[in-house]
Write a structure and sequence with these properties.
Number of helices of chain B: 8
Shape of chain A: flat
Largest interface: A-B, 59 and 80 residues
Helix content of chain B: 25-40%
Oligomer: heterodimer
Radius of gyration of chain A: 17 Å
Distance between the termini of chain A: 31 Å
Shape of chain B: elongated
Radius of gyration of chain B: 25 Å
Number of domains of chain B: 2
Number of helices of chain A: 3
Chain lengths: 100, 290
């Protein structure tokens, strides 16, 4: 069930330009909240908390993530046509890529 | 040991549709205008992944939403973004939403190499997605070639800390002596307790590192690459992802099962196949016109 960790860490990510340093701090807060959510999922999977307890944590954490996102103007759709795609940086590989 | 999956259900196979424009296939401009007409800016396009496909494709109603949205592609040359229409706004990473995102990628990756999008990516219009594919065309093509026929598997390993502490107490003479000293309660046990704690911590650390190193070494020959992530919670000693060639999937699977049997005191959370979330790192920098 721990799918979320993949989806939040990996894949194609967006870095919005014009993000001030102050927002970085909020991003860190969001990171901490996601970790809380993942830890709760793990505990649910291990049977350490009940579905109800998980649901309650999930509600609280999601509400706080949403609050952070809204504060930094999240939820706006991406629009390369309105703005400008200024950088594409693609890398492939793990910690120890060993070629083939 | 069985391999867990996100959650799978039987899905309709993807049907290829000819590239010829059907009635519903509007030109990009018309489609964009259409989206705006619905409710000024209220619908966007949620993007699940990018694949190689010169033809428009439909994957059925398996997308996000209480009524699962229709999943189809937006194409540019031989690249395609797999998308569904969605209301604009924050998409909470609820279990339903996350499962829907995964369900789509799981379906698409059966027949395609995918570059997964991280959760919650919404574009304004179809034209914006075409612009994305156009601007990042070379980078996407390059990554798709490198990811071709490769799958990601997740391996999380947990231990029962108390059990390991008892093992250490049995195995380590110094620890055993200190424990006896503490429990005998003769005089102050402060320094004995301090030292006991230090020895236990060091031994735990050493054992966990040894397990992790052994397991990585065993999986090295059946995988292409690996990545270590931060463990979740205090029981996890390893949180890793492995990139495996399709033709080595069985060998990898067998190896993981062998390891699971060998380390019977550890708990293994083995999942996959996933799209290569941990091995693709595409950062797109977007300057928003203010």
């Amino acid at each position: 069930m721990l799918i979320l960790d993949r989806m939040l860490v990996g894949g194609i990510k967006w870095v919005l330009g014009k993000i001030a340093a102050a927002v970085d701090e909020q991003m860190n807060d969001a990171e901490g909240l996601r970790e809380q959510l993942l830890a709760a999922q793990m505990r649910l999977e291990l049977g350490e908390i009940t579905e109800e307890e998980f649901a309650e944590t999930e509600r609280e954490v999601l509400a706080r993530i949403r609050e952070l996102q809204e504060r930094r103007g999240g939820g706006q759709p991406l629009s390369p046509l309105d703005g400008k795609l200024t950088g594409v940086e693609a890398t492939f590989g793990g910690d120890d890529e060993r070629g083939e | 040991m069985t391999r867990g999956q996100g959650k799978s259900s039987k899905k309709k196979p993807a049907s290829k549709k000819p590239a010829a424009k059907s009635k519903s296939e509007k030109s990009p401009r018309a489609a964009a205008a259409g989206a705006n007409e619905l409710h000024a800016g209220s619908r966007g396009k949620y993007v699940y992944c990018v694949i190689k496909s010169p033809e428009a494709m439909h994957f059925g109603a398996i997308g996000l939403g209480t009524e699962p949205a229709d999943v189809h592609t937006v194409n540019y040359r031989d690249l395609a973004a797999v998308v569904s229409d969605t209301p604009i706004g924050v998409h909470d990473p609820t279990r339903d939403n996350v499962l829907a995102h995964q369900r789509v990628n799981e379906t698409v990756m059966r027949e395609h190499t995918v570059i997964p999008m991280s959760f919650g990516t919404v574009f304004k219009t179809r034209d914006d997605i075409i612009e994305l594919l156009r601007s990042a065309y070379d980078a996407f093509g390059d990554v798709l070639n490198k990811m071709s026929n490769k799958l990601e598997f997740g391996l999380k390993i947990l231990w029962d800390r108390d059990l390991v502490v008892r093992e250490i107490e049995n195995d380590d003479e110094d620890v055993r002596r200190l424990k006896t000293e503490i429990s005998s309660q003769s005089g102050s046990t402060y320094f004995a307790r301090m030292q006991y704690g230090r020895l236990i911590d060091a031994a735990l650390q050493q054992r966990s590192e040894q397990y992790v190193a052994e397991i990585f070494a065993a999986l090295r020959e059946v995988s292409v690459a690996s990545r270590t992530n931060k463990p979740i919670g205090d029981k996890m000693i390893m949180n890793a992802a492995f990139l495996v060639s399709r033709d080595q999937e069985e060998a990898f699977d067998t190896k993981v099962k062998q390891i699971g049997a060998r380390y019977d005191k550890l708990t293994f959370k083995y999942t996959g196949p996933w799209p290569p979330y941990n091995f693709v790192n595409i950062r797109l920098k977007l300057e928003r016109a203010s």
